[in-house]
Amino acid sequence: MDTPVPLNSRYSYHAIFSDICKTRFNHLATRLLLTLAVVFGLILALVSGSNQTNLIHKLFLWPVKCMVCYLGMLLVVVTRKNYLHVDFPGYSSIITQVYGQLFSVKLLVYFFIYSASSACFNGAAGSAILGHLSSRKNMFAYRFAIWILMPALYALQHVIFDLDKLSFQYGAQHQHPQRFISSKIKNSLTKSFMLTLALAIIFPICTFHLAPSTGYLSWMSFFHIQLSALLTFALWDLVNLSFNAYLSMGCLHKGKPISSLSSTPMETLLTGLSSKRSFTKLTAFQELSYRATSPDIEARLPIYHTRYKNVYVWPSVLKECITTLNSTNSAVSIFMKSVESKQELYTKKPSVDSDYLEDGTQQNDLFGNDYVITANTQSRIPGTPQTQDSQLTHRIKVQNNNVFAKNHNLQFSSPFQFSNAANNRILTHQTTITNIIYDCVKQAKDFFIAFFFPIQGTDATAPLSSFEIWRISKKLQAERLSPLAVCHAECTVSLMALLVKALQEDPKGAVVSSVGEILKILERSVASLGAFAEWNTSSASKDSSILDVVTILYDLSINAFLEIVLKYNDLLSDVYLADDVVKLSKWMLEMCNEQA
Length: 596
Prior knowledge:
Structural class: mainly alpha
Strand order of the largest sheet: 1-2
Order of helices and strands: HHHHHHHHEEHHHHHHHHHHHHHH
Oligomer: single chain
Mean pLDDT: 78
Number of helices: 22
Number of domains: 3
Helix content: 55-70%
Shape: elongated
Number of strands: 2
């Protein structure tokens, strides 16, 4: 097979995407945040001062208050930029997540950043708050709340729940930032009220024990401090929400895929699919899914056609998709083997239809028949847990909806194989020296975690200890096994959509001829992820309505497999299929026929 010619690093998908992310960040900082600072500064300027302060004097203070407020917002987004990530942190239980996040430098950094930001906001407020404090002895309580308690509360919830992570909905390739922000405002305000309520409970207790000589604040002073806290919490959350909206806009730039900015789009896209940077890789797979599901055939023609010496495009795309799917499948399989050794936690699999276990070589009567699947079917593939979300049992529809975001092959590498320039961090320029320092610090951090927190670990497939197995969280373990679950989902959707559309758009092309290979990898996903999906832990039994990412990927794999089989029903009799693929196809088609 021909291999693509390596591109210059500045033409790689990562380089182009880094420039786009910087543009989006600049739009956030110079447009939205500056507008918020101007509005907020104007409000503070008008309500500050005494009744005798004339309007001219207040307007004179307006630019000063705007700049102070803007500085407070900018501190937050710059810190978010440096801690930005898209993969799950990799904890196996709530306990390891809490102490792993609490005992970190990041918590201290965020505490000081939010403390400085709070000082900026409340300093800009000035007499609007301070003027209502009854006496100087209460200034200690006020400063303690503004500089210590408020930043500590917000930093704690931000770090423990890993709110630095950008979340993407499966199958969503683009989101409009303003619409995303408006859809989350209600939740943001609710969160701000809850944090203010927590502060109202903690604040009197702390001030009484730390400085009993200050006495109790008056109700009016207490009310104004709580009002200041509510506004500060709301402003912080709005800034973080805006950051998420602008940095998770997806794979489109001005309505076009990111790779279209290159003179060699497919070659550029391939560098993104194989990138070692999680954010870049995820966005590249989003673009592949966008191209696969787009109603415009022009988005897929470069993948279908082998003209212009690009015969390696589809084989390279398929190779990266299979590698991505196999990384999750292998991790889950190794983990389940470890679970199987713990007889107390492994539940017996439900009995499987004997027809599914028969020899699958009888292909003659399997394909070419009419099968119908109903939307309300309750029959599921053996091993699939029952869920309340009936939509997950439906087939995937090939469509292109602009939905808004909510929410490796393991190889040994030397500690001193430093980062490649083409894979530098998003939004942050790195020189050779900073690359060396960054990699050395990373190695030291991994050693520290492995020594002091061996339960957490960095290897998701490591065997479970007897202590860990009893307190494991199925949801968190699923995230640990599939840290980039969105990539796996986009792979599944892309392969399914490309096969389905190629049957009419390019029936004699390379995509259609790969149907056997794609069905095989999807069958492996069903087999590997199915064991985890049916696995019941003590935490999972408490709330079975919460789906983990592996179970969601399992449903996607089943639906994609079924969609392809139904679409290629008349052609599969002439295609060589592995025995396991035939067995699964037979079982699924018979289930569909029973529900017709």
